[in-house]
């Protein structure tokens, strides 16, 4: 009898072990930009490590879905992507709020995405090539500057137009580049003088020689207060004289706070979201992951998915009059 019981117990234990060791189906991580830029590099960094912290240690397969200022990815993730926990996407916090601000092509609600976490904040900067005549923030706002732009809804197109409208600058945009990787190449070729709307940490990551060899000059940053990384670079807020413009800029700063967050589609099972959030947070504090990030030069300043969810709800609760004013600015900037 004891032999039978022991055999049965062993069979149950072996079956449990087999289930625990069963490989999990791959997890798809879709990035909304072309390969080579800061978003892509952060997304692929996460893809290399996230699976180690999920049950079954699935392979995380990164892919790119660029276009329309990352709206193509956001719309797809919201309405088309599988809702079974097998797919997540990297949706920039700025893109996440496009629908709220009146972009008719944004068919989603940021509060209904299931936010997983963000590896870094977003420090929007104006970068110009070092040999350009633009030396200071005042130059940037008063002289003609030719900047590279992307799709109508992309940050590198919208931000220059907002600065023209809210701060009275004279920026010219050469649009049509696909992602910051193409714009950086255009800057190096002398096709344009710089770009506005890219992230400082993304530039450090994707173009370390620009920073190391002082090939570029960061003349202004577009955040609520000066970043510790750029203490000598003035913010756009320091040049605002119109109270209405100042309030609109604050709203735009809030929408970019968490930079490169990962999200799962609406309707993904809560248990899967809990797994993904726990895995992300563990990864963000893992020694091997941090060593890999350091090797790339990637700054890690992680935020929890719950914090991103709270930000989305806070922005959506902004008074309607201010949202309408900001939406008007964005509509004009997106034309």
Any overview of this molecule?
The protein is 45% helix and 16% strand. The protein contains 14 helices and eleven strands. The chain is of the alpha/beta class. The radius of gyration is 22 Å and the shape is globular. Helix 2 (38-49) packs across helix 8, helix 6 (155-167) packs across helix 14 and helix 10 (243-255) crosses helix 14 (320-333). It has two domains: 25-121 and 256-333, D-Maltodextrin-Binding Protein, domain 2, CATH 3.40.190; 124-255, D-Maltodextrin-Binding Protein, domain 2 (3-Layer(aba) Sandwich), CATH 3.40.190. It has helices spanning 2-21, 38-49, 71-79, 93-96, 137-142, 155-167, 179-189, 200-206, 208-212, 243-255, 270-284, 287-296, 305-316, 320-333; strands at 27-31, 60-64, 87-90, 114-118, 124-129, 145-148, 171-174, 194-199, 216-222, 261-264, 303-304. The longest helix has 20 residues, at 2-21. The strands form three sheets. It has a six-stranded mixed sheet with strand order 2-1-3-10-4-11, sandwiched between helices. Helix 2 (38-49) links the parallel strand 1 (27-31) and strand 2.
């Amino acid at each position: 009898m004891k032999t039978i019981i022991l055999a049965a117990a062993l069979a149950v234990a072996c079956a449990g072990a087999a289930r625990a060791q069963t490989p999990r189906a791959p997890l798809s991580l879709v990035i909304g930009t072309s390969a080579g830029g800061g978003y892509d590099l952060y997304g692929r960094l996460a893809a290399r490590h996230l699976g180690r912290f999920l049950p079954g240690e699935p392979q995380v397969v990164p892919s790119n879905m660029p276009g329309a200022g990352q709206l193509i990815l956001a719309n797809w993730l919201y309405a088309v992507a599988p809702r079974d926990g097998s797919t997540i996407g990297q949706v920039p916090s700025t893109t996440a709020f496009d629908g709220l601000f009146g972009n008719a092509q944004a068919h989603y609600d940021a509060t209904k995405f299931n936010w997983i976490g963000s590896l870094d904040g977003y420090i929007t900067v104006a970068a110009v090539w070092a040999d350009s005549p633009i030396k200071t923030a005042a130059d940037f706002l008063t002289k003609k500057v030719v900047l590279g732009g992307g799709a109508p809804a992309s940050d590198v197109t919208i931000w220059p137009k907002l600065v023209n409208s809210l701060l009275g600058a004279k920026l010219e945009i050469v649009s049509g580049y696909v992602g910051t990787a193409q714009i950086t190449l255009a800057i190096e070729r002398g096709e344009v003088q710089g770009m506005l709307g890219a992230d400082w940490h993304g530039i450090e990551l994707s173009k370390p020689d620009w920073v190391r060899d002082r090939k570029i000059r960061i003349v202004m940053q577009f955040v609520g207060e000066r970043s510790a990384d750029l203490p000598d670079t003035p913010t756009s807020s320091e040049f605002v004289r119109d109270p209405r413009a100042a309030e609109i800029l604050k709203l735009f700063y809030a929408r970019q706070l968490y930079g490169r967050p990962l999200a799962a589609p609406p309707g993904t099972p809560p248990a899967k979201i809990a797994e993904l959030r726990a895995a992300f947070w563990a990864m963000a504090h893992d020694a091997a992951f941090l060593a890999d990030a350091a090797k790339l030069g990637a700054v890690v300043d992680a935020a929890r998915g719950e914090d991103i969810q709270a930000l989305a709800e806070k922005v959506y609760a902004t008074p309607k009059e201010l949202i309408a004013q900001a939406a008007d600015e964005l509509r004009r900037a997106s034309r």
